[in-house]
Amino acid sequence: MPDGGSTGIGASVKRKEDYRFLVGEGNYTDDINRPNQTHTYMLRSSSAHAKFSLDTSNASKAKGVVKIFVGTDMEVGSIPCGWQVDSKDGTPMREPAHPPIAKDKVRYVGEIIAVIIAETLEDAKNAAELIDVNYDDIPVIIDMQKALDNSKGLVHDEIESNVCYDWEIGDSEAVDKAISEAAHITSLDIRNNRLIPNAIETRSAIGDYEHATGQYTLYTTSQNPHVIRLLMGAFVLGLPEHKLRVIAPDVGGGFGSKIFHYAEEAIVTWASNKIRRPVKWTADRSEAFISDAHGRDHVTSVKLALDKDGKFLALKVDTLANMGAYLSTFASSVPTYLYATLLAGTYTTPAIHCNVKSIFTNTVPVDAYRGAGRPEATYLIERIVDKAAREMGISQVEIRRKNFIPVDAFPYQTPVALQYDSGNYNATLDAALKKADYDGFASRKAESAKRGMLRGIGFSTYLEACGIAPSAVVGSLGARAGLFECAEVRVHPTGSVTVFTGSHSHGQGHETTFAQLVSEKLGISTDLVEISHGDTNNIPFGMGTYGSRSLAVGGEAIVKAMDKVIAKAKKIAAHIMEASADDIELNNGNFEIAGTDKSMSLADISLAAYVPHNYPHEELEPGLDEKAFYDPLNFTYPGGCHICEVEINPNTGEVKVEGMTAVDDVGMVINPMIVEGQIHGGLAQGIGQALLENAAYDNNGQLLSGSYMDYTMPRADNFVDFKVGNEVTLCTHNSLGVKGCGEVGAIGSPPAVINAVVDALSELGVNDISMPATSEKVWNAINNAKDKS
Amino acid sequence: MEISITINGKEVKANIKANTLLSTFIRENLNLTGTHVGCDTSQCGACAIHLNGDAVKSCAILAAQADGAEITTIEGIANGDELHPMQQAFHENHGLQCGYCTPGMVMSSIKLVENNPNISEEEIRKGLEGNICRCTGYHNIVKSIKQAATEMGG
Fold first, then answer.
1. Structural domain count of chain A
2. A525 lies in a domain?
3. 3-state secondary structure of A502
């Protein structure tokens, strides 16, 4: 790995963005106030499924009220879904209309039914109390299995079914044949629990229409302001790009939930024109629980066929995936192309088939949450591999080694569409075994047993596909947008650099990592580099940050723009030093004539470019400012091994994580400190899913876990120190060799935790436990097992 | 109603509605937006400040209750351009990512350490039960606090 000097590739440069956050001078959307601004309260449905009517006459007269809008006031386009998935019979997915404000029917608790705009938030809330709402309740559909029977009721009458699509991938015949002939079949029914992303900054949006120019500005908590401009401008409000500016300033965490175009963004933008004043909305936490898109929520049956030696022959998967009441931006792609294409995992399973039915229910829309589809795939693979090993008496390590894709098999074509470019799964497993002191586990288990405790160890040798991009590939799979990235590298006259990137940082540290790329390539200190993001008026274009794509796609776009800068700088240097551009070499920031002591610094060249007195005008334009779009050839494929060790108190069912080891291959590491931080955060969310978090609805469609009183957010004392390491195989199709690290922690860890819990309980005859493995659930499993024995 | 508060060393007098939360007063009346609000059930701790020497969740009390009090917010912790050892430790140990919980984390952590200079890792983890971070997995926050504890004289 190159050492890159003090601020280049491979250096743990401390973050440039920290200072403003540490002194309380971050600039988050809710910190922004516009002159003459109004405040908005969204009145939301308290019924999960009803026809409704409302009377706003008293509320309209209340103190401070500027205007109240209801659904029929806002005749605009439907909130769009960005990805079309066709059913296996060729019919397109069912795509119900999604108005920003419900008109006459509500389909989940939390759906907006009226927008109250007032001088203060308190006035708006008080006025909302005066709105009379009459709900005429309709039977509520929560359970996906029941939703399959359309005669029990429909979430959307006009689409005549609760099934959005019935989709498949893989060779069903080959799988069925392998299963019928296999020496061993392992089966498992799995629920991937519904989660609520819970970025600590709640969503917020300010619409600001300027009458004199016809310009709209939307400030919003978004991971991808250009995508919002496109979706809201083109599909919902009919505003052309040149009249709509979207600013996503500092954003307090996203985890996927701030990718999507939400109704509130369209409402405040539209309303600011209607009332000719800025309109501000900020969610409180209770509102976030019922209005941010939720994550996961799959119910799956899986079968693994093995030969007598434990070699995998076939995998058969049937999944019901919850869409909630409406299709959110990426919802349709998550349980299909981001899920079923991952089902080979790290293994050579020759035949795979997966059928996915995605289902409308009377719940909050479900969409991408850290990992998005890949955690669901990883969970079922790693759980069933574990169960198969147990049933066949093969060790957890051995069964994995037996089936790993070998190092010499790359590029490896899986039976489910993807072609992996690189990986070394034995290397990450070996390193993790060592780091986790696997050899010492037996003695630690014995020591726990002496204290009456149960101890278990669990593995996950996962793989994921990220760097979400190749436009041609995703386009052929139904994406309605390209997934490239754009960057502009502006060398200023005195040699400092501003990079304009279409990626968006909301915790990932781009202002540092991207500056390191510049430091490495142009040979200047990161102190001379500023990274600009999050404003559609500043940034040429962008597709944003999700799917661990910022470095592999956005970073590579920066490199491409720098390549253009370097090529031009060489020509300028050649002209001034009277040499051939082919003879100019860039070394440590100096453009040197090879074999001589003549050289120019980047600052010398940029000054010449902006003060072009002695300049090759016939060949070059003045200035040193280059832009690049980059569209990769493939996804990237990080992978690795997570090992979890738990101790369970059989008297209380309490599961304590005693060790969490992650050795990941995320390709080339630019800033090891930041990469470790990303892994830590992902692990915490993965352990949270496995042990603590669960979004629960009752049969009436009320969210039971609707606040931090009921939804268990992981806290510091739920964890021990994580042991994190990395092994590097380079991505073969980008120049940096990078893969992506944002999601691996959340993708790899949940099955490791649950496999550890099952391992601890296996001596009692327990062979499965569902997420989250709460104390109550574990205690019941222990006691039910005791009753049976 | 009229209140008078000393905030970050400056006395401010204000006429406020009696139901104004202290967090609202700090953010909206005083425009000190470093104090964040991340929940509505007093659990996330993003709004933690120092009130008469104690770490307090400013969303859980009324501004009126702080009448006459001395308050320090995240904006008042550094000594000019020199960061407080806790802020510096968060920077050096990558104890923050999105930065949203950070002000509350820093304010709570300072009091954790001041009240228990030889604080152990277990005590740090337990002591952070009132502060939620979704980004870091807490690992580097705990490391930051350990380092700051050493530098603060523990």
1. 3
2. yes
3. coil
* A444-453 own/partner pairs: CB under 8 Å, 24+ apart: A444/A645, A444/A658, A448/A647, A452/A650, A452/A651, A453/A647, A453/A648, A453/A649, A453/A650
Q: What would the pLDDT profile of A123-148 be if each residue is shown by its tens digit?
A: 999 999 999 999 999 999 999 999 99
Residues A411, A498, single domain; the answer is no
pLDDT digits (tens, 9 = 90+) for A277-334: 999 999 999 999 999 999 999 999 999 999 999 999 999 999 999 999 999 999 999 9
Residues of B in contact with A30 (CB under 8 A): 33, 37
CATH number for the domain harbouring residue A54 = 3.90.1170.50
Q: Are residues A675 and A745 in the same domain?
A: yes
Give whole-number Cα distances, A430 to A384, A401, A405, in Å. Answer: 21, 10, 15
Domains defined for chain B, CATH in brackets: 2-76 (3.10.20.30), 85-151 (1.10.150.120)
Domain assignment present for A406: yes
pLDDT for A395: 97
The answer to whether the Cα torsion of A776, B134, A142, A342 is positive or negative is negative
Pick the residue of B100, B129, B136 with the most A CBs within 10 A to test the interface with A by mutation: B100
A616 and A493 within one domain: yes
Distance, in Å, from the CA atom of A195 to the CA atom of A188, rounded to the nearest integer, reads 21
Collect all residues of chain B within an 8 Å Cβ-Cβ radius of residue A196: none
Of the candidates A673, A680, A707, the beta carbon closest to that of B137 is on A680
Domain interval for residue A600: 18-25+484-630
A-facing residues of B in 52-71 (CB < 8 A) are none
Angle at A686 between CA A683 and CA A689, to 5 degrees: 150
User: Within this chain, do residues A492 and A623 fall inside the same structural domain, yes or no?
Assistant: yes
Q: What band does A481 get if pLDDT is binned at 50, 70 and 90?
A: confident
Domain annotation covers residue A443: yes
Sort A544 into a burial class: Cβ within 10 Å, 0-12 / 13-18 / 19+.
Answer: buried
> Is A475 within the bounds of a domain?
no
Mark which residues 7-26 of B lie under 8 Å from A by CB. Answer: 17
B103: chain A residues, CB-CB within 8 Å: 21, 24
* Residue finishing a domain among A227, A255, A282: A282
- Residue B123, chain A, CB below 8 Å: the answer is no
Q: How far is B114 from chain A (nearest CA, A)?
A: 19
Residues A463, A511, single domain; the answer is no
What residues of chain B lie within 8 A of the CB of A285, using their CB? Answer: 38-41, 44
Q: Do A685 and B136 touch (CB under 8 A)?
A: no
CATH number at residue A712: 3.30.365.10
Q: Which residues of chain B lie closer than 8 angstroms to A15, CB-CB?
A: 91, 94
Taking chain B (154 residues) in runs of 10, the rounded mean pLDDT of each run is 97 96 97 97 97 98 97 97 97 98 98 97 97 98 98 82
Q: In what order do the strands lie in the sheet with B70-72?
A: B10-15, B2-7, B70-72, B48-51, B54-57
Residue-averaged pLDDT of chain A: 97
Q: Which among A285, A673, A717 is the nearest to B39, CB-wise?
A: A285
What is the model's pLDDT at position A2?
40
Contact A422, A727 (CB under 8 A): no
Q: φ and ψ at A390, to 5 degrees?
A: -60, -45
- For A610-627, what is each residue's pLDDT tens digit? 999 999 999 999 999 999
Interface ipTM: 0.98
